[in-house]
Amino acid sequence: MNILHRFSIRRINNNCKAYNITVIFILIILLILSITLSIGIGYSKISFSSIVSFLLSNGDSSSKEYQIINYVRIPRTLTATFVGCALSVSGLILQSILNNPLASPSIVGVNSGAGLFAILIVAFFPSYLGFISIASFIGALIATFLVYFIAKRTRASKTSIVLSGVAVSSFLNAIIDTILIIKPDSAMSRTYFLIGGFSGVTVADLRLPVLFIVISVVIALGFGYDMNILSLGDETAKSLGLNVVRYRFLLIVVASLLAGSAISIAGLIGFVGLIVPHIGRFIVGYNNRILIPVCALLGSIFTLFCDLLARTLFAPFEIPVGIVMSFLGGPFFIYLLSKQKRGFIDA
Fold first, then answer.
1. Residue 190 C-beta-side C-alpha neighbours within 13 Å
2. 331, 301, 307, 332: which is closest to 319 by C-alpha?
3. Omega before 101 within 30 of 0, i.e. cis
4. Which of 169, 140, 121 is nearest to 263 (CA)?
């Protein structure tokens, strides 16, 4: 009987591993397809053969297609891919370490903190634009700790964390609006930044943020097991020997670096970090060691899909991608709140 029991457990584990590998493989294929569509679809139609010729460096560098692919589509596609990855993994980390399914960079004030510091650099220190990513990270970190401190002082329930985030976001957004009114001629478009979008980004703009995002995702993968323990609650984590304060601090730093890097190049993109982790859990469960790569891939696919909608829904006119995400994310957030009211999400 004992041998049969062990064999059954091993078989279940093998089936789970095979399923997870299959899911990741399918998501990689979908990401490649999404990237191809993102490069090929837009106001100017570009054939698949032209894309292949460009990738193989066989295209005519003076052609219109080459110019569009090289200077518009490729930077925009890369931006959407890495921003979606960063915000999704950041949201997953925040939901796990705060033990709150409603947490995300846009909900708990991370986006607003990063945005404020980015605006400060653009408006008052334009000669230091190269430090926008670092400034956004610092702003995201300060906002996250501020929200967590306020929530701790008010019982630190799941609801108080969300309410603290809303309050901090409102305050920081008011400061952002004030700066943009005082400095209307700053290098950053007010509408573009507050709503979020991927147009106008160059490959040079991506270098430092992408480096931060890749490093942060790799670090998050290394903390997957610790995130699993933290998601069980502070008391359980402490009983299992985990230094809760230290690991929560480190993971908040990683989440802030991810969100800050994304916001520094795309503006205040919302709801990606809220929606994607829930979709990931529905597909592969609650093991963060699997969820992190799944959310990274799902986030990129979701963001590329929203960007395609933003470009094609009202073509030849383009709407900011942040509007599309708000249309999708708003109802989803209401759905989560209704689950909480019915008792499915404990407060």
1. 14
2. 307
3. no
4. 140
**Cα–Cα distance between 206 and 261 in angstroms, integer?**
9
Count the Cβ atoms, other than its own, within 10 Å of residue 345: 16
Q: Quick one: 250 exposed, middle or buried, by C-beta within 10 A (0-12, 13-18, 19+)?
A: middle
Class of domain 79-341: mainly alpha
Spatial CB neighbours of 31, under 8 Å, sequence gap ≥ 6: 81, 297, 300, 301, 304
d(CA 168, CA 24): 36
Q: 279: how many CB neighbours lie within 10 A of its CB?
A: 16
Q: Which two tokens stand for residue 284?
A: 């592969």
* pLDDT per 10-residue tile (average), the chain, 347 residues: 44 67 95 90 72 65 73 89 95 86 80 87 82 85 83 65 80 87 66 74 86 94 91 84 85 88 84 90 91 96 92 80 83 73 46
Cα 265–chain centre separation = 12
pTM: 0.83
One-letter amino acid identity for 194? L
Cis peptide before 316 (omega within 30 of 0): yes
**CB contact at 8 A, 46 and 40:** yes
